[in-house]
Design a protein that fits this description.
single chain, mainly alpha, rod-shaped
Length: about 250
């Protein structure tokens, strides 16, 4: 009986130990599962942190690239605006320079034109004054020459010099060149015409008769032909004046 009791106690103790051992194994498995869950959660968290860090790093790198590109783009735009501003400034300065040169050219041209005009006016004034002086002098010379004709033509037989009119300069552009004709007188027809242009018809008639080449047929033989030719030239001009006065 005691043996059965002891055996029964022993089996009861063994059963209790089995239950304790089962609880302890369950607790150990539960602890291990908790540790595994803890490590799994840690690994997941670590992976998430790493992925977040990588994503953040990638985002920061992308933002850095965007910032760099934006700064570079802004720098290029600033340089382009600066270059455009410089071009506009250069163009404006070039335009102002051209306008200033054009103004200077116009002013210089106007000044040269004014100086040229003033020179022409001075030259014209000098020419008018010279013509006035020349006209006055020529008038006096022609008057003096006509005043001495009566004495010079009083004796053709003893004439030693032909009373030719003074060789005054001619201002007519269409006056024939005496070097290309048989003109013996130094004075041109214009001067002869001028000497007698104010004479009346009767005075021209007397002068025409006085200068007729036949009047000089009794001149000294050495000069007769030359004097007659000179007289003929005088006669032609005076005769033309006489016929126009008729």
């Amino acid at each position: 009986m005691a043996f059965e009791t002891s055996l029964h106690k022993l089996e009861a103790a063994k059963t209790e130990d089995s239950r304790v051992r089962e609880r302890w194994l369950e607790d150990l498995r539960a602890e291990r599962e908790r540790e595994e869950e803890h490590w799994r959660l840690w690994r997941n968290e670590h992976a998430l942190r790493n992925r977040f860090a990588a994503e953040r790093q990638e985002k920061l790198a992308w933002e850095a690239r965007e910032l760099t590109e934006r700064l570079a783009r802004e720098q290029r735009e600033r340089m382009e605006r600066l270059a455009e501003a410089r071009r506009e400034l250069d163009e404006r300065r070039a335009k102002e320079q051209r306008e200033m040169e054009e103004r200077e050219r116009r002013q210089r041209s106007a000044r040269q034109q004014r100086e040229r005009q003033e020179g022409l006016e001075r030259e014209a004034l000098l020419q008018r004054q010279a013509r006035a002086r020349s006209g006055t002098t020529a008038t006096h010379l022609l008057a003096a020459w006509r005043g001495g004709l009566d004495a010079a033509l009083s004796n053709h037989a003893k004439m030693q010099a032909f009373p030719a009119p003074p060789a005054l300069p001619c201002t007519r552009p269409d006056c024939p060149d005496r070097s290309e004709t048989d003109h013996l007188l130094q004075a041109c027809d214009c001067v002869i015409h001028r000497a007698f242009q104010d004479a009346g018809k009767e005075a021209l008639k007397r002068e025409r008769n006085r200068w007729h080449p036949d009047k000089f047929a009794i001149c000294p033989h050495a000069h007769r032909e030359e004097y007659q030719r000179m007289a003929n030239q005088m006669f032609k001009v005076i005769n033309d004046l006489y016929e126009k006065a008729t």
